[in-house]
Structure prediction request, 163 residues.
Amino acid sequence: MRFQNAIGLGLILAAAPCSAQDPVWSPDVANIIYDHCASCHHQGGIGPFSLMSNADVVANGIVVAEAVQTRHMPPWPADPNYRHFAHENVLTQGEIDAVVDWVNFGAPFGDPLLEPDPPVFLPGGSLLDTIDFQVAIPPYTLQYNTDEYRWFVIENPFPRPSM
Prediction:
C-alpha cells in the first residue's frame, strides 16, 4: 500500500507544472513590462516596437530577454550602485530573471483574471497630462547608425525643481 501511494504521488508531481516559481505573463511579467518598458514601447512612443500586450511581448520575446539580460534595456546610464535618482528606471536582478525565464519557458500566459490593464498614454505619446514648459534646442543629426545617447544643456528658468 505504501508503495502504491509513493507511485501515485510521483505521478502527480510529474504532471504538475515546472514549479510554483516559474514566471507567467499574468501577472508577473506583465507588471514588469508595463512598469519599465511600456513608457517608451507604445504606439507613438520612442521605442521601435510596441510592448503593450502579451502578443507584442511574445512576438519580441527573444529581443526583450536579451535586452534586459545585458541591461541594455531599460536604458539607464547612471550607475545605480553609486547613487540613486528620483524615478530611475532600473530592473532588479529578480525582474530580469523573471523576464528571461518566462521567455525560456515558452512565455506561458498565466491567469487571465490577474492580468493588469496596460497603461494608457495620451495621443502623441506624451506621458504628461499638460505641458507647462517647452524649450527649443538647435537641430542635431545622429552621428551613428546605432542608439546614441546625448545630453543637451538647457537653462532651467524655474526657482526650484518640481516633482
